[in-house]
Amino acid sequence: LLLDVGGGFKKSLLLILAFNYYFSNQGQIIHMDSAEDSAVADFLQILEEHRRNCERQGKYVEAEIAKNRLEELKVHEENRRKEAMRSRQLAERLGVEEAHMLEYQQFNMDWDRKMGEFESHANDLVDAMRQRHQAELTDFQQNLLQKQQRPKFSRELLNLRKIQEHLAKQKDYTEAHKIKLKSDALEAWELEKWKNAKQQEMFQREAKFKHQKQQELLALQKRVQTGREEQKKQRELDLERLLQRYRNVKNELEAQQNLERIRMERMAQGGVTA
Q1: Are 19 and 70 spatial neighbours (Cβ–Cβ below 8 Å)?
Q2: What is the C-alpha to C-alpha distance for residues 182 and 176, in angstroms, rounded to an integer?
């Protein structure tokens, strides 16, 4: 397009044909870099110079054609820039959304793993305590059985046994036998009473032991629940921070894109005014 725009009709016609060729290849959105933008700006400048030359030379038909083409090109270029900006801004917003979704997915994966590890460790602690409690209960029960003392009989029974032995030494077997039957019955009654008392004592001590272990287990389970709630709360706080970062980035991007649209509108208005 490096034409001598000060020449005659043929050169003007070549310029218009070149401009028509430019419009004939705009069926798709053109993604131009800074070099292409500069080329378009140069082309607009050349076309504007051509219009002025035609005006000065009295070639008003050619000047009108150049003016119309110039306006069409400006409108087309403005629309192209707007569409390119909309496409790029949409891509930027989609990029933010995609990055947020990836971060959110990774966040959930990390926290699910962390909470799963916590639950696994908590279950191991509870199982280990239950097994230890069972072993301690077995030892406790065995110790109770081993530490049982012989019963302490009443003074009455001991006196009857002495009388029984004395009668037997005196060869008074009939009376000795009567005393023996009475002593045996009393001893059986006292043994049964002692066994019942010991069994009741063992039950009470075992119940107390189990209660202590149950309280220990409940305390562990309470600590586990506290840790579980703390993790849940921390997860919610971390999620809120993640969402706030996303909102901040999104708002900042929207603000930047709004400013870019405003600047483009002002530039377009300035171009129209010019």
Answers
A1: no
A2: 10
Q: Which of 257, 252, 245 is nearest to 100 (CA)?
A: 245
Residue 104 exposed, middle or buried by CB count within 10 Å (0-12, 13-18, 19+): middle
Distances (CA, A) of 262 to 163, 188, 265: 123, 108, 5
pLDDT tens per residue, range 246-269: 999 999 999 999 999 888 888 777
Nearest CA-CA partner of 242 in 98, 107, 94: 107
**Chain-centre distance of CA 70, in angstroms?**
57
Report pTM. Answer: 0.60
Say which residues have a Cβ less than 8 Å from residue 175's Cβ, sequence separation at least 6.
167
Residue appearing with tokens 């008003």: 60
As separate numbers, helices (DSSP H) first and strands (DSSP E) second, the chain gives 5, 0
The pLDDT tens digits of the residues spanning 43-55 come to 778 888 888 898 8
Q: How far apart are CA 137 and CA 228, in angstroms?
A: 29
Q: What is the DSSP letter of 6?
A: T
Which of 238, 214, 232 is closest to 119 using CA atoms?
232
